[in-house]
Amino acid sequence: MADLIQEEQQVLGIDDKRVHLEGGGGGEKDMSPATGSSIHRSSSRPQLDVSKAEIQSNVEDKYPTILLPNQSDDLSHLALDIGGSLIKLVYFSRHEGQSDDDKRKKTLKERLGLSNGNRRSFPILGGRLHFVKFETRKINECLDFIHSKQLHRGGGLESRYSDSVADQNAIIKATGGGAYKYADLFKERLGVSLDKEDEMDCLVAGANFLLKAIRHEAFTHMEGQKEFVQIDPNDLFPYLLVNVGSGVSMIKVDGDGKFERVSGTNVGGGTYWGLGRLLTKCKSFDELLELSQKGDNSTIDMLVGDIYGGLDYSKIGLSASTIASSFGKTISEKKELENYRPEDISLSLLRMISYNIGQIAYLNALRFKLKRIFFGGFFIRGHAYTMDTISFAVQYWSNGGAQAMFLRHEGFLGALGAFMSYEKHGLDDLMVHQLVERFPMGAPYTGGKIHGPPLGDLNEKASHRNLKYLIYAVKLLKIIGCVLELISWMEKFLQKGTEITAPVPMTPVAGTTGLGGFEVPLSKGSALRSDASALNVGVLHLVPTLEVFPLLADPKLYEPNTIDLADPKELEYWLTILSEHLPDLVDKAVASEGGTDDAKRRGDAFARAFSAHLARLMEEPSAYGKLGLANLLEMREECLREFQFVDAYRSIKQRENEASLAVLPDLFVELDSMDEETRLLTLIEGVLAANIFDWGSRACVDLYHKGTIIEIYRMSRNKMRRPWRVDDFDVFKERMLGTGDKKLPPHRRALLFVDNSGADIVLGMLPLARELLRRGTEVVLVANSLPALNDVTAMELPDIVAEAAKGDL
Ligand SMILES: Nc1ncnc2c1ncn2[C@@H]1O[C@H](COP(=O)(O)OP(=O)(O)OP(=O)(O)O)[C@@H](O)[C@H]1O
Ligand SMILES: CC(C)(CO)[C@@H](O)C(=O)NCCC(=O)O
After folding, report:
1. Which class is domain 218-300+340-407?
2. Which atom, in ligand 1's list, is nearest to the CA of 270?
3. Residues 486-506: pLDDT tens digits?
4. Is 175 in the pocket of ligand 2 (CB under 6 A)?
């Protein structure tokens, strides 16, 4: 019980009503104490100008766009890094406000006879940072992309209210050599000027930002083992930043904006891709990299053993298998290029370049006595062999004294730095500890033709999950969200003929692991993503307010993710469950949207997209950072939202709500007829019993099919063997009754954590809240996820509870 009800001594920013709903709830991993720095304290934050705001929509529009003609702060939310090989884009999109026009939301309140007079519905503050890349040689695709999303005009905000609003003066921050080289092209094609930011400044700003703001951004990679490293932001400097792009820059970083480019090498990513292309005829970088995974470098490289007749040269510590000379074997053989396997060439080349970079990096670390070396740039490509080779070189030459670390947003350092250089973003201050790495759903766009339904149909929907942040956000800023249009993940998967393939069949087929249809990765130890084009860009969610729940005993030790999927067996188990459950979930999701053809199409696309994520996790469990079960379930939710399924369990919950509401009066009568002590215990047990519907477990669904909800409720309350128990009941009872040996005063205020099913709320929380209110205790409802009564907005719950307490139900 301890975490169910807590007496709360502090005032949590609440108004004078007796019942409140608070967002948050302490369930997020990212709630570090530093997150308490709420957004509104930053004076450099973009200001909202709502003057002359208007809603532009047809009456039937579900998600009307709010136009802010005088709002200028949002416009600069795209930044570019135009390198020798790749163009990197970072852009920001706001979360859309939650729609309040849904008819079904009225039903429960109507049924409960509550007035709808002061319906509160707020937009959601927050947004996403999207990361997208294009090949520089295909710059036109990048320009098309920017244009189609109107990113150069603030994501379409301006374009909607006036086509004549001048783009002419629009400025986009850009870094990399291409900011100079392609400035005219951008002016010509998009009418924008590129505001050039220094490449090294940007790399350092981006790296510092990521290392300070994103949990588990850095990781080590040794002998195939990836380990995330949590960097202490107060103990970050100095370090060596090695950016492996086309060429390689090595920068000694001493602080924010304090750095020196101490070295570089022209043997870099461009060398690997360029030489590799000439030598193997590969058509793409990924193809070349993939090829290396099947290679054997001993056919190309001259090994110590080749020189020493199979022996080690142990006196100087060289084993027979050590490469003495990269590509050296080819000089002594009478073979032509075509007699060598492209796989072997690719591997030799990759090893040669990676090792060389690792070695030069080490020498520079030694030169400046730096212990930590971070490697970024797109050459790394999250590729296991590349990282292992670099790590080996660093470790070998430093005798273990220095450590190579890699960055998850490896190639986006410069673009992020450019993005941060917009002064008004004040990101350095604002975003630190307020970004949450989620799953790369939003903009998996990496080049290729832009296909898809008209952009207007693809308004990004607000994630209801964000509701947990809603209330604070509104209180703090009252910022009105706007609808941004995205060519998104959804579009990719909805389109026939796009390049993305769904690697996972829905049912197990011969030749698979039997893991619910996961294919065995082709190459062992592979970390190159077969579905790379779809999944290698990411989204960072800007979460407006993350507060550590004030009553947590030890916030640092609190780990809400109780199931850690680092254990391969655990991961396999849960991936199998999710995979097997997928067809059923799709059916439900489609039904929840009325079973229309459009819903079916989206359902199918969702299944393919989600399967792709599962397959990737199977292949590379750490692909999305540290993973717990809650993250996995959240990923599924996010993916559903991405395909515009508001709530796959809507119809089930509706039935559950109706069933629960129908029996609620009986339950009240039953409770009221009990003696006080029995009632209190029953109420607590009822909360737990009602919770059984959580996550829709199969056993609960079976139960549900077998009896009425009150029967299930009673049964689970009385008979089910449960792994929980009611602890501290005596304390609870004494506090409720205000009696007992300890003569504790009654609760002044209670926090009730509202979970996510109808029975949970109606049969569990409502009766308890009613009892508390009747006893004069204030009730604060804390929503730790969407209270999915689903025909009631979260904001209406307090009214409903208050009415229940008055006995009006
Ligand atoms: N899809 C891809 N196409 C081309 N190169 C890729 C791709 N993915 C990874 N790479 C590798 O990444 C390198 C480019 O990395 P990055 O984008 O960090 O540098 P850049 O900014 O283009 O180069 P520079 O900073 O030297 O101008 C390429 O040379 C290649 O080795
Ligand atoms: C020229 C840059 C900085 C362009 O990004 C990069 O490609 C690089 O660092 N090349 C290596 C140049 C050298 O120091 O030898």
Report:
1. alpha beta
2. 29
3. 233 444 444 433 333 322 222
4. no
